[in-house]
Amino acid sequence: MQAIILAAGFGTRLKPYTDTLPKALVRCNGKPMIDHAIEYLMKSGVDHIIVNVHHFGELIIDHLQTSKYDVGLSISDERVQLKDTGGALVAALPLMKKEKKVLVFNTDVITNMDISALYNTHAHNENSATLIVQNRESSRKLAFNRDGQLTGWINYKTNESIGTVPSSRDNLFAFSGIHLIDLDLIRHFESIYGDHPFPMIPAYLNSLKEYRIGSFLASENTMWLETGDPARLLEAEQFLKQENK
Predict the structure, then answer these.
(1) What is the pTM of this model?
(2) How many domains does the chain have?
(3) Which of 68, 137, 141, 163 is deepest in the core (most CB within 10 A)?
């Protein structure tokens, strides 16, 4: 199994921490977030991890090279140009093993979600990508039809939307930042966008006529912590301290 950790963002919501550090090296409960991500992926059976870098990328590279992990690691270097969440996958294609798919993971997420269940759902539904979603409060939601296939996206704060979004809030879920995507679909994106930056969710929505983009609903008792701003970082630290007692 292979995965890519998206660690290239500026982490603007985590200022002032990210004034001198990349988001991936901000500590949560005494450990850099990138280490939480790597340990989780290793426990989930991943044996090859790609990490993309941009903001303070040299610090992440140095950390990865001087730390010892029992897993293969590669760096997708975006220091010249940030590729966004979709372009990052295209940029990393040459580093991916010749497997059918790759797991995509955000560096600011700490979780115990069941990746094996995601793989099983992905295989049986013949999806080209499967997104782990949650039934939780969020200003941004993904819309799915009754078969669990992606149809749209909406931002309730700005009233922006893409694709088909129902007037009711049924079948609307928050994205976990974790998804499984076939390399064939990444190559399709490469044929459309080339090496230009592009965001992932709009690209998924633009591909629905040709590809199946499905969902996997995480159970409500799953631990999922997003550390993207100082308040949530503190909440995550407090939660982990309680868990480790």
Answers:
(1) 0.93
(2) 1
(3) 141
